[in-house]
Amino acid sequence: MKASSSLAMVIGFILAALGIIGLISPDTYVRLGWFWAEPPGIYIVPAVQLVMGLVLLRAAPSSRTPVGLGVLGAFALAEAVLMPLLGHGRTRGIAHWWGSQTYGSLRLWALLELAIGILVVIAVLPSRRALHPATSAT
Length: 138
Known about the structure:
Layout: H1 3-24, H2 26-35, H3 41-59, H4 66-99, H5 103-124, H6 128-131
Helix pairs in contact: 1-2, 1-3, 1-5, 2-4, 2-5, 3-4
């Protein structure tokens, strides 16, 4: 497995773990969401998203779903570029909106994040054929 695929798998596990946290404890999920709205998170999160986007784009061509992983990577890159442009005031507004959501809607977002994380992991897993080559019947 290539390094980019291994890193993409780690990203998938992290996304899935965040989704599980959101399903179990929406309050903790909201507190994690506040991290990106306040310094130093407002500076750290775009850097992490930039790395995530580059890793997903790098892993996409050799994955099971190159287009899907490429779109996720492009989305992470766009978010990394746009977030600093929003500024501190707007990110705080988004965080307030996020914190005002019902537990049900937060759990739906967490379920989506869990699903995306699982799909990223599945996308970069080696194919079964590569693990068990077929034998020719002669």
